[in-house]
Amino acid sequence: MKVRTVVGTIAKIMSVVLLLALVAGVTIYILYVRVADPQGYYQRDPLATGTPTPVVASGKQLAKRLRARDAGRPIDGAATGKQILFGDTHVHTTWSFDAFMFSLPMMNASKGAYPPAAACDYSRFVAQLDFYFLTDHAESYTAERWRDAQESVRACNAVAGNGNDPDMVAFIGFEWSQYGITAADHFGHHNVLFRDTEPGSLPARAIGASGPASHALRGRNYGENTVRMLQRLDMSNGSYYQAFGTLLNELRTEPDCPGGIDSRELPTDCYESAANPGELFAKLDQWGFDTLVIPHGSAWGIYTPPGASWEHQLTAKY
Fold first, then answer.
1. Which among 5, 90, 99, 178 would be 20 to 30 A from 32, CA to CA?
2. Residue 317 in 3-state DSSP?
């Protein structure tokens, strides 16, 4: 009889403990997801600060002086002869699917958001670059986010100081992220870089790669199920996974642009794609903007089909 009483008491205590744990978990979820960050950190791109700490500012000035010395220019910055600039033509943020995925807490990443404005601040105050190109994956863009990315680049340039001698210049582009199942239809990734940043000097949409790359992101309903699973496994970081699901659902629900229409005549908010470099270049030619396309050689990686080479795309067609 005494044994039964003890067992019953323990069972009641365990029930209370489990109930309190459940209440605590729900409370944490509400505080973190619904109150502290109701829309998810991915939803907003705060403007770049443009205000370095004194230590970083002095470091930036020192770097400019050293570059002037190494380039054979007077320390005061008056240009004589060749000027060497240091930059990055391939910058990703958490607006790219892969960068977002590897920034999630469950991937043992440091906690924080890395939207386009963060790329501006990092390039200016940490890497201390002279220029950078924002080149998120086109397949991870919606037309709306493409417009937001442009605004972020212009905001970055707005806090660059003297327009004739800015401390850094931000540019924009996108990565056309293609891969093929066979060597004949594999072309790899290409970074598309634009000279200008004003609205009338950029395409209305980023142009993604059709085929497996687009289908993997846009052809399936990963969002809701992914969010539920990740939030249950890591409730204290629920807003991160909710934001990740928002990205997936936005990509899935944006309609494809109709085919056979001049890129300039397409609807504003649709997903535009090209199957090969020839189609990509044709669409860029329709816009007529100054554009530089650089093959992303390291993208041949683990999904490159056997026998793939550059030879088949070094033709007039492509």
1. 99
2. coil
59 half-sphere exposure, CB direction, 13 A CA radius? 11
Distance CA 274, CA 270 (A): 13
Burial 15-41 (b: 16+ CB within 10 A, else e): eeeeeeeeeeeeeebeebbeeebeebb
Following DSSP, what letter does each residue of 140-180 receive, concatenated? Answer: G--HHHHHHHHHHHHHHHHTSS-TTS-S-EEEEEEEEE---
What is the pTM (predicted TM-score) of this model?
0.74
